[in-house]
Amino acid sequence: MLSRMISVGDKIDLQALEGPGESGEEPAIYHSMVYDILSEDTLELTMPLEKSKLVLLPVGSEYRMISYGETGLYQCLVRVIGRRKSDNVFILGVRLSSGLSKYQRRAYYRYNCTLDMQVRSLSREEIRVLEKKLPFVPQPGLPMEKGVIADISGGGLRFVSQQRYEAEEFIYCAYILVRDGKKKEIEAAGRVLSVRELEEKRGTFEHRVAYCNLSRVMREEIIKYIFEEERKIRKKENLM
């Protein structure tokens, strides 16, 4: 049954089970890939990387595993049972400690990227439109600031800029996605969830944003872009 839902090469997320700490940060998420399926409850995964460095997850530690494959998204709890190296590949052995179930996403998968964007605060008129749950149409001609997107999803984005936007502030974001060789402009209103100044780069601020009243068409464009980019990455990894 396991092999019907998960395949070698499927993308894997391992989410630490600990809740947010005192800093308010989200539980750590490690990105991996299915290396081998040993039995109906045992898998081998590639060792996660973080900033090009191996993350040696402790034997005995437990994680929520989410798989992204052609048959759909699934989740379960897994426990690390061993680590080894084979042909210069560092491998993590895990055993399922719960049943595998369909993953019903409350949040969208975040794709790490570097994309230029334009951003500004919403005008009072634009905020009133959002409050009435009407389709968002940006007012033309208002000055924009530059930003750089660090990750995107169908539900929001994370970006950095030298302009600070406060938590709960409503902003307008515009950026370009290239899919199938065609450019698609994404225009979205969003609410700032959190903001922090980067310790390593003072005067630069990181913002987490949730989209507001994003159209179904725009959301689907973003999700399709993410899946295409992920597919390209997997293809390159398989050729290595």
Automatic annotation (TrEMBL):
UniProt entry tagged with the keyword NADP: no
Source domain of life: Bacteria
Keyword Thylakoid appears in the UniProt entry: no
Pfam families, alphabetized: PilZ (PF07238), PilZNR (PF12945)
Segments forming domain PilZ: 104-228
GO molecular function: cyclic-di-GMP binding
Residue span, Type III secretion system flagellar brake protein YcgR PilZN domain: 8-91
Gene3D superfamilies: predicted glycosyltransferase like domains (2.40.10.220)
Alphabetically ordered keywords of this record: Cell projection, Cilium, Flagellum
Protein name, as recorded: Flagellar brake protein
